[in-house]
Amino acid sequence: MSFFGKLKSIFKNFAFAKNNEKLEEILIEADFGVKLATALAKEIGSKGDITEALKNKIDTIISPLIAEINVNSDKHPFVIVLEGVNGSGKTTTVAKLAYHFRQMGLSVDIVACDTFRVAATDQLAVWANKLNCRIFCGNTNPEKPREPASLAYEALSNSKSDILLIDTAGRLQNNTNLMNELAKIHRVLAKIDDSAPHETILVLDATTGQNMVEQVNEFQKIHPITGLILNKLDGNAKGGTLVRVVNEFKLPIYGVGIGETEKDFEAFSVEKFLKDLMEK
Ligand SMILES: Nc1nc2c(ncn2[C@@H]2O[C@H](COP(=O)(O)OP(=O)(O)OP(=O)(O)O)[C@@H](O)[C@H]2O)c(=O)[nH]1
Ligand SMILES: [Mg+2]
Question: Ligand 1 within 6 A of 142 CB?
Fold first, then answer.
C-alpha cells in the first residue's frame, strides 16, 4: 500500500487526537527522522484532511529552496565544485551541468580531479568530447596519479571559459585523508581567486536514506555547501529523508537527476515528488 494510502487507512477508524502517535510512527518509518516526524504529527494530526495537510506542509518546506545555479558573469571562470560520496552521481552531474550551460551558450571547461582512477578520467573525457568541452586531466601515468589539488590549481590558472566544473573523487565522509584532500582543493582555488569556488554542490544519491543527513554535516565541515543536487529520483528515492535533509539544512536544491544521460536533469518539482511519494 502506498505511503499516503497507509496514512488514510489508519486515520479512517480513529479519532485524530488519539493517533498523533501513529502518524509519527508512519513518518519515522518513511525516513522523516524522529524530530521532523514528531513536529509534523503534532501539527498535522489535528487537521481534517491529513493527506492534504501533509502535502501542504512538504510544499512549504521544499518550495522556497528550489533554485537555479546563478552564474555570476563577473566571476570568470565561474567555478563549481561537485562533491559527494562514492557513486552518488557526481561525474554524471558534471555532464548534465555541462550540457545545461552549453545549451545556454556558455563555454565550459571540466576538471577531472578524480585522478586516482584512470577509468574516472576516461568516463569524463567521453562526456567532454560529446559535449564539446575542454578537459583538464592529470593521470596519464596511473602509477603516479597527479595530486587533485595541483590539477585544480592548473585548471583555474589556465581556464578561459565561462564555467569551470570540477569533478572530485567519491569519498566516504568519515575518511579523513580524502576529506583533507578536498579541503586542499578549496584552498588552492582560493589562492587564485579568493571568491572561488563560487558554488560547492553536494551531490546526493536520493536512494540512500538516513545517511544523507550525516553526509551533509561532514562535507559542510570542510567547506560550506552552497547547494544540493538530488540524484536518482527516477529510482526508489527515500522521500522522507529528502524532506528531512532539506528541512534541516535549508540549502538550495539546484536540480534533480532523473536518469543517466546528460539531458536527465531538471528542476525539483514538488508536485511530481508528492505524486511519486504517494505511488511508491
Ligand atoms: N538512474 C539514475 N542513475 C544515475 C543518475 N545519476 C547517475 N546515475 C548512475 O549512477 C552511477 C554512478 O554515477 P557516477 O556519475 O559515475 O557517480 P560518481 O559520484 O561520479 O561516482 P564515483 O566517482 O565513483 O564516486 C552510474 O552508473 C550513473 O549512470 C540518475 O539521476 N539516475
Ligand atoms: Mg565520478
Answer: no
